[in-house]
Design a protein that fits this description.
- There is one protein chain.
- This protein is mainly α.
- The protein has a two-stranded antiparallel ribbon with strand order 1-2.
- It has helices spanning 8-17, 23-35, 39-51, 58-71, 74-87, 93-105, 109-118, 124-136, 140-152; strands spanning 161-162, 165-166.
- Helix 5 runs antiparallel to helix 6.
């Protein structure tokens, strides 16, 4: 709760006082750091979690990948990708979408596209990650094409208002 409200220091104090930390408490701390812009602390906490021998889960990977994306830490993201693959977490649409987003934001749009194309299931988050990835890397035509493809596949944007105008899909 503290981290969600922006009191990351209080969250860390509470975390440090815990006699036992489970995957949920570690994930909450990592996510709190990322949400509050402390990506270095998130990456450090992720490493501490690994050293403590805590088994990572889907939420762990979905929480740490945005830190790699914000920092542009492609090498670190690639290491995490290997862990995801080895752990069998790549089939999760949220984790796979976070990977697509991380690769795109780190400038590896080709890798993002490869992952996106291999995803057995896509949701609006997956499509948005790919659209934004293309746009952020200067491939605006591809962003528009994939936006149309998204609609053809029956997935529609989750934003109902843009610039004060109601959008109709």
């Amino acid at each position: 709760m503290y981290a969600k409200c922006g009191s990351i220091e209080k969250a860390r104090e509470l975390f440090d006082r815990m006699s036992q930390r489970d995957v949920i408490s570690w994930n909450a701390m990592i996510a709190g750091y990322v949400q509050n812009g402390f990506v270095e602390k998130a990456l450090e906490t992720f490493k501490q979690m690994q050293l403590a021998g805590v088994k990572r889960n889907y939420a762990t990977f979905a929480s740490i990948l945005p830190a790699c994306a914000q920092k542009g830490a492609l090498e670190h993201g690639m290491d995490i990708h290997r862990s995801i693959t080895e752990g069998g977490f790549l089939s999760d649409v949220v984790v796979a979408s976070a990977l697509v987003d991380m690769y795109a934001k780190c400038g590896s749009i080709h890798k993002a596209c490869q992952l996106f194309d291999k995803m057995p299931q896509k949701n609006v988050i997956s499509w948005n990650a790919m659209i934004a990835g293309y746009a952020q890397n200067g491939f605006c035509e591809d962003a528009l094409k994939i936006f149309e493809l998204m609609k053809n596949y029956g997935t529609y944007p989750d934003i109902k208002w843009a610039g004060g105008v109601r959008l109709k899909w």
